[in-house]
Amino acid sequence: MAEIIRMPRMSDTMEEGNIVAWLKNEGDAVEPGETIAEVETDKATMELDSYFEGVLLHIAVKEGTVPINGVIAVIGEKGEDWKAALEEADNEDGSDNSQSAEENTKSENKSEEKAPTQSSPSASSNGASQNGSNASDEGRIKASPLAKSIAKESGVDLAAISGSGDHGRIIKKDVEDFLTRQTEQEKIAPPAAPATKKEEGASVVPFAFNADGGYEDVPVSQMRKAIARRLGESKFSAPHFYLTVEINMGNAIDTRKKLNEVSPVKISFNDLVIKACASALRKHPAINSSWMGDKIRRNQSVNIGVAVAVDEGLLVPVIRHTDMKSLSQINTEVKSMAEKARAKRLAPEEMQGNTFTISNLGMFGIEEFTAIINPPDACILAVGGIIEKPIVKDGQIVPGNMMKVTLSCDHRVVDGATGAQFLQTLKQTLENPISILV
Question: Catalytic amino acids?
């Protein structure tokens, strides 16, 4: 019996998946556990494995976005009727939604009984559109998997088709009828009128200019959608406030130079900042907290998320138990996860469980900036570059290497004094980095 392959939920925040590529073609044999496609989720590009053995009979969606539980392929025995399997899957989907649809119909009937009767043309046309509607309450077009497949292959927009199935669902016959009507209209449609010649003596513009300069529409990736949703929720639901402090990195520069003379890996300033933050978080547990709605969660583990820039935005791999790791361990783990992030190969569990986040733009020459809190954290630290400039030391103007860091705080969890005390500890640690080595 043919098996329907549906879009699985591959991360806790995933609402739809984007099929990037199929690693199997229609007609290829498939083994259980064999990878058949690559799917882009809101966090990474992941491999989709088959749970069934057989032949890939049909690919319903060659590429593009598919909602969770949407049909993407059919696997079965060679020569088996995959269309029948799609129709059966459609019937199952329809029966699952029949009860809620019936309740909606009853509710509409009650509303119609209470509403005054109208006989105007606009009222009758509205009624017709309601009866022939093929969209759900959420605006999603209701259509059978087979109808969707035929429409996609024919380049037809399902929104232009009226469904004759239960509750306005588009079925195979509706798409075929629409294609037939479209073909007949093309046969009888008059040819397009030729362009008219310019009148004699009229001025001719040698070049056409676009007043707005033109533009390009770039499709929004699953990752970008997730970034927009999560950071939008964070910015507009969590009351942010910001604290900035300037740190003298002179001793850190000297310490890093000495460490790299004996370290098996090259320690970076970012590694020093991560380790110093982990040490400070252990002393200030209020910063290592999360807002849970009806309670504040004080996290016992220090798990620092490190923002990594990728082509489509930011990914935040998590360094677990950061306070218990050496600088060389932190360096190795950050580099490994950064490479996986840029290749979109991070596993979901490698991007979960963060209790604090660091975003470092110092390598891009940014002196100071503010960052949006990465949920569920209560704080995020924005790290700027080390700037050489004159400073006053012991009453004398001397050259200094200064770095600004800005702590974004969720005021529901962290108060100003609490955030300031954390930054004070961080400043003392980085200005005396030997303390994080003992």
Answer: 411
